[in-house]
Amino acid sequence: MSLWVDKYRPTNLSQLDYHSSVSARLSALSTSGDFPHLLVYGPSGAGKKTRVLSILNELFGSGVNKMKIDVRTFTTSTNKKLEFNIVSSSYHLEITPSDLGNNDRVVIQDLLKEIASTEQVDFSTGKHRFKVIIINEADSLSKDAQAALRRTMEKYSRNIRLILISNTTSNIIPPIKSRTLLIRIPAPSVNDIVQVLNKLSSKQEIPLPESETERVETLRKIAESSERNLRRALLLIEALSMQNEKLTPTTPMIQLDWESVIKKLAFNINRERNVSRISQSRSTLYELLSHCIPARIILKKLTFELIQLVNFKAKSQIIEIAAIFDERLSLGSKAIYHLEGFVAKSMVAIEDSV
Amino acid sequence: MVTERSRRRSKRIKSEKKVVVIDNDNEIGEFEEIEEISGDFDTGTKVKSPKRVKISQLATKIRSISRSTSPIDIHQDNSLWVEKYEPKTLADVMIHPKKLKDIKSEIESMLGNDPHRPRLLVLSGPSGSSKSTVTKMLANALIDHKTQIPNFIEWVTPSSTNSDRFSDFLNSSSYRTGEKTALILVEDLPNIFHEDTRRKFQRALLEWVSTDYRLPPLVICITECEYSNDDQLYNQGYNIENNFTAETILGKQLLNNPRLTRIRLNSINFTLSKKCLNNIVIKESSIFQNIPVDKLKPKLEEFSRYGDLRSSISALQFWSRWFQFSSSSDINLGKESSIQLFHAIGKCIFGSKNEGEQDNDTINSVMKDYSTRSNILKLGLLENYDKYNSSDFDVKKASEITDYLSLNDTLKPEDISLELSIRKTRYTLNEVEIKKTQKLGLNFPREFKSYKLIKSIKNDITRYIELEFQRNSIFRTFDDSNLLHGFLEPLINNNRVFKNRSKIHYYQSINKSIPQDWFYPKEPYLKERLGGPLKELNGDQEVVDSNDDYLKTSYNESYYNDTKIDTNTQGQSDNEDDEDEYDSIVESSEEDFGGDDTFEKELMAVSQRKKWGANEFIKSQEKNFPIKSQKLLEIPPNIRIPFITKRDNSEFLNDIDENEFDEPDF
Amino acid sequence: MSSAIFGNRKESSKSTEVQERLLPWVEKYRPKNLDEISAQDHAVTVLKKTLQSANLPHMLFYGPPGTGKTSTILALTKELYGPELSKSRVLELNASDERGISIVREKIKNFARLSVSNPTKSDLEKYPCPPYKIIILDEADSMTSDAQSALRRTMETYSSVTRFCLICNYITRIIDPLASRCSKFRFRPLDNQDALVRLQYIEREENIKLQENVLEEVLKIAGGDLRKAITYLQSATRLHSTLSSSSLSNDFVVQDPDSSNPNSEITVQSIREISGSVPDDILQNLINVAESKIFDDIFKVVNDSVSEGWSAIEIVNQLHDELIFDDKLSSDQKNSISKILFETDARLTNGTDEHLQLLNLITQLSYIL
């Protein structure tokens, strides 16, 4: 028994519920037995990873699902030991560059070289002689590493296929973009999610209303509150149906704990604009940061919560401020400066607009 | 060199030969003093470190050689003033009278008969603040023996590495009561940088304060200093490695003990130092009579500012000799007085300064000390700028400061970025009119606390990802785990267990048999938010020990300690039979909830494996409510429950790879 | 057993075929000699002259990507040495994977130190075969300045037996002492006519079915970068050939609004999808909401386009093309637009959040438009 989101996770392309055109495209690629390097991009929760794994499933069969985690140690030039995880099956392996920090270039180069040098020979079919390497969060690869990758892609194209998974193409250098086939995976629309949830309700006992319209209405509400993220929607509906005897369109939605913390923070900032409030905000910001909530997500959520509360003039100012501090997050090293700077500046913006 | 010196000196001293000798001696003197200044950390005035003894021996040797070749000038005084003018009586000790009174009354009550009397006195303060001198004097003054037994026993760290020595020392000293009463002085600390030794040291002291026997008074003198850099702070947190304070040495548990009294001594203030130096000048008039007053006076004031009497006196002695050779009085002497963090923050934010100092000077002096560790000061500024005028100032000013601090976080090089931050903060706050007199206490930057917490939560989440991968062979991303699963999964799990429980109640009441597949989840599950619930991270006004309680609580222990996955976290607790049974049951059981409450009892009724259920119930109870009485004496383990290391994990994974992943779960 | 062997043999022949098919067209259609180089008349003329005298200076090729710098030097070496000899006489170093002082020193030294192998008679008849080796340093501008300084010395030491050819995009990133030792050749961006001829040639060779204006669209998206254009064309061709052989093709084509015939002709739409560029209607929609100045609409539209996964940097680039050439806008407006587009672009390159930046961009635009 596991969570619904795991239980009903699609494993091959035909089980995918939405974006049929993308699925068709991927399916076409996989039937040819080979594919070029891919750059799969789209917002988080759109199902990029699921699709990539599905292609592999299609190509190599269920052996792809026999995965294990390896811990590799890498000694950097400064003699520091670096440990990182590699998830692998006999057909593919996955790396996440954010584990590697500043050494991503060297690690990836070494790793790819190592894999490429061990030829994949499958005597029974002789078919897939290449190994697939999935690079998660490819947009967090340093420019240095990307430049190195560009050469590696050409050099080892005989033995390995790269699949880069990324939230955006903005941080990917043009040479990589031009060497890969770009595949965009949009987030599922609210309707897509409603359909998936509806399908789920036929397999799992969900206390939904009897009448069709109310039923769809309830599902739609859940879908809408999940911000076009299917994983979130599935977890939400499971939590809701465990929590409530009956689900109706008026059932209160579950808010994520960290999101309600941010919401409350935004409310307080808007209501009380003084220095003591900034001090209190700092405790809240540290609370979120300490819980590994990414600073960028805090900034974004806080901005969106704030602009719901303020008038038009302040709205555009706050967005402008957020855009500036967003960049500072990238350039600087300690998130707290920039988050607090944003809070203080937003207060001034609200004060001025009143 | 010699001839030049000689020419100047010949005015005063007639014999050419003597000068050479004196020069020799002087050089020895200088040698010793340099050793004194640099080696002066906080060895007591009386207790010489072995190194110094050696040097003085060497000096005597040299002196005797020179004696043999030439007659000696017996008027030349070669002793160190620090030793020569060591206080002989309590009245001579340079300490604030109030503090002296406090210490005296503490030691008196320790010698007294009050059942609640303190057992342990901790004196903490910077070097040269007369901690040990006062203690020894008081011991001599307060303990009156008819016999010749010394009035105090002092702990001397042996060269051997045996970490039990300290408790042996305490044990052997504990009989010194009644007739033979002696004060036990611990000034030289065992090697507390070694963790095991530190724990044993703390444990011995804890035992000391918690026994009911009559014990002699125990005084610990701790010379506090912080010598941290940013790197260390991040790697280790604020702990003993970089921060030598009573908190890190003794630990919070001990410090909070009611039978421990702590008295903080400040560095000796300007007036007292100056008084002492003046006395010396008068007594050494033979030397000082040749020094013009206008040269002497500013120097005296400069030396008096050191805050460490020992180095003040040394500096004075050295300077006076230097002055005899060189007409220029300009020589950089004495202690590099480093500005403590809170002091520096205070200077930057409140603009507190010495007389006649401009903001600019203040900033420069802070910059001098902090240019190499700018991070901690910048964080300190952010943490504390809002304390100005009790947070009562325009939010625009605050936004200017934070904007600047934020911008400076993106700038390089570090020292310029720090200077800009300090100046902006100081000048912006200077424009605010101070209305409130009450000052808010300064906070230590939370960044390091937060960093520790992040590390521990990251650890939890990574563990979760690994365990989920092992169980379901599903690899979750870090953000998904933290942002979505971390909160929603416990919610789902707990509600499901709750739901099933009520169903079972109902079925039991109507005597219906219970379908097996209701019991969920089979495996230990997330009961609490991954990494613990979100809670505000507040600032601390004092430095916190990195092993402190904000990290103590761990969440989802039963989930992480799942015996089915981890083999080495379940200790060799009870007998072997129990263990075996437990394992086999977990594997075959459909009904294992892993719950922690009364439902376990219901489970017992349903499943027939009563014995295990009961055992497990008690086990889980113990886990949740550790027995308080034990805790008192127990030094808490370093951090958290022992996780298996990653390396182990992977090996383990390789092992189960063949067995368990043949049939994927979905 | 035998079947397995047979299977293998069959497979291996098939795989070489696959290899053939996988060979990037960029390589396949690389110019074989200097005459085939598109639109770099100036550089080509000069180089041809040096070819006659067989005395080559050190060279520095610079210009935007995809303008034929690498192709030119490769073609030149072929003409100098012929296919066989160039293997031992030419060292191609790609700076991006192996840079740093040690590489420059070691690799180049080792190569330069090797004595020059003698050309065969047949080669001598056909090619000039000058008595030096050529070292090509591609992407030289990504070498550290330390490595570049180290190179300076190496160049002089071995100048009797080697010629260097540095290739870079930005000449400003080559240190002066190095640049002054080389003859510089500037490569102009290709104008569309030259590039179109080349693409049409490939179209004929590969027998690609294209809809109208597809090549023009490819060129527009590639922006003077011939390599990019060829890569897009190849990707599109591969995708469509697999689609046509797949039963699911209908499904895909239905999603294509402007495809009139459901066979495997490459459409403008699919070229755009492959290049990751944003469709016009999404772009127009963004401009429209900015003009409407209704914040809630802006918020919603931006939200949608981010959820659809459209790349923000692509939107910025295309908005630039769209707005800067819009005659209805005044110069002042265009100035302000350029500024905010520039800011957003810079921030996005710094790895900022696309959603926030895009929202800011459109809100700011709403004040300007």
Overall SS class of chain A: alpha/beta
Name the quaternary structure.
Answer: heterotrimer
Rounded Rg of chain A: 23 Å
- Count of the separate structural domains of chain C: 3
State the end-to-end distance of chain C. Answer: 74 Å
The CATH architecture of the largest domain in chain A comes to 3-Layer(aba) Sandwich
Q: Could you state the CATH homologous superfamily of the largest domain in chain C?
A: P-loop containing nucleotide triphosphate hydrolases
Second CATH tier, the architecture of the largest domain in chain C? 3-Layer(aba) Sandwich
N- to C-terminal separation of chain A?
55 Å
Order of helices and strands of chain A: HHEHEEEHEHEHEHHHHHHHH
Sheet with the most strands: spatial strand order of chain A: 2-3-4-5-6-1-7
Average pLDDT of chain C, rounded to a whole number, is 78
- The order of strands across the largest sheet of chain C is 2-3-4-1-5
- Helix and strand element order of chain C: HHHEHEHHEHEHEHHHHHHHHHH
Q: Approximately how much helix is present in the residues of chain A?
A: 40-55%
Write down the overall mean pLDDT of chain A.
85
Strand content of chain A: 5-15%
E-strand count of chain A? 7
What is the general shape of chain C? elongated
Interface with most residues: A-B, 71 and 78 residues
Per DSSP E runs of 2 or more residues, the count of β-strands of chain C stands at: 5
Structural write-up:
- Chain C: Belongs to the activator 1 small subunits family.
- Chain C: It is found in: Nucleus.
- Chain C: One of its GO terms (molecular function) is ATP hydrolysis activity.
- Chain C: Residues 55-191 form the AAA+ ATPase domain.
- The complex is a heterotrimer of chains A (354), B (666) and C (369).
- A seven-stranded mixed sheet of chain A has the order 2-3-4-5-6-1-7, sandwiched between helices.
- Chain A has helices spanning 4-7, 20-31, 48-60, 104-117, 143-155, 174-179, 190-203, 212-225, 230-243, 257-271, 275-290, 295-309, 312-331, 335-353, and strands at 38-41, 68-75, 81-88, 92-95, 131-135, 160-166, 181-184.
- With 354 residues, chain A is an alpha/beta fold.
- Chain B has 666 residues and is mainly α.
- Chain B has helices at residues 2-9, 16-39, 50-69, 81-84, 97-111, 131-142, 165-173, 195-210, 230-236, 246-250, 252-255, 270-283, 285-288, 293-304, 309-325, 341-350, 359-370, 374-384, 395-409, 414-430, 447-472, 478-509, 557-560, 576-588, 599-606, 610-624, 628-633, 646-660; strands at residues 120-125, 152-154, 183-186, 218-223, 225-226, 243-244, 260-264.
- In chain B, strands 2-3-4-1-7 form a five-stranded parallel sheet, with helices on both faces. Chain B has a two-stranded antiparallel ribbon with strand order 5-6.
- In chain B, strand 2, helix 7 and strand 3 (183-186) form a beta-alpha-beta unit.
- Chain C has 369 residues and is an alpha/beta fold.
- Chain C contains 18 helices and five strands.
- Chain C has a five-stranded parallel sheet.
- In chain C, helix 7 links the parallel strand 3 and strand 4.
- In chain C, helix 5 (101-113) runs parallel beside helix 7 (145-157).
- Residues 1-17 and 246-262 of chain C have low confidence and may be disordered.
